[in-house]
Input
Amino acid sequence: VQLVESGGGLVQAGGSLRLSCVASGIRFEDYTIGWFRLAPGKGLEGVSSINYNDGDTYYERPVKGRFTISCDNAKNTVYLQMNNLKPDDTAVYYCAAGKFYTDYGEGMDYWGEGTVVTVSS
Output
């Protein structure tokens, strides 16, 4: 099983990025998919989740209204569109797949290696 994130980079505050997560070895439709982030000096933080079957989405308060999670069944890919980025969004972003989502990652069985997002002020 492999999850591969991409799309990170350096962006100015107010800018946008779209992260992608492609899975091999599993079908996303069988899982809840979550995005998490790990910022310097902080613990793992949940960002958003999507239930692949019914499309239900969830956003943590710091990103609600700015980030959008979506999925492409045909490509077995999950996206995280990030708009109006802030310096506090700077972190390594991970996607994960599992049975259920919590904001600290419990319930996730598979993790990617992360993609770095840096937001300059």
Q: What stands out?
A: The mean pLDDT is 95. The CA atoms of residues 1 and 25 lie 4 Å apart.
